[in-house]
Amino acid sequence: MQRKPGRRGNQVLHISMDRIVRNPKYKRLVRNRAILGGSLSVLTLIIYLGFIGLIAYKPDFLATPIGDNVTTVGILVGLFVILSAFVLVAIYVMRANTAYDRLNREIIKEAAE
Predict the structure, then answer these.
(1) How many CB atoms lie within 10 A of CB 105?
(2) Which of 49, 51, 74, 81 is the most exposed place for a label (fewest CB within 10 A)?
(3) Rounded to two decimals, what is the model's pTM?
(4) In this prediction, what percent of the chain has a pLDDT beyond 90?
(5) Helix ranges restricted to H, 1-113
(6) What DSSP designation does 99 have?
């Protein structure tokens, strides 16, 4: 059984990696992180590949002026691509900083007992 030192205040903790890996909460954490990370990655890929596909196969659509010829559809779609990346990262960070961090602390606490 491997033990890994950790710290809690001035107290040194010895955390068993075996206990962590066998913990159902750890398995749930790994599964949920993989599902969310994979889903957001696939969504990002679809958005980027969709944009590249529009550039390749519908350049006239992207060149369509909007309003008084100030901007085009392509500019708005490009802004959507960039903003969607920020939104998807924010979704992951919010989830990681709330549910995943809380679950991680619970797992470490249980393994240290």
Answers:
(1) 10
(2) 49
(3) 0.77
(4) 65
(5) 17-22, 24-57, 59-62, 73-95, 101-112
(6) I
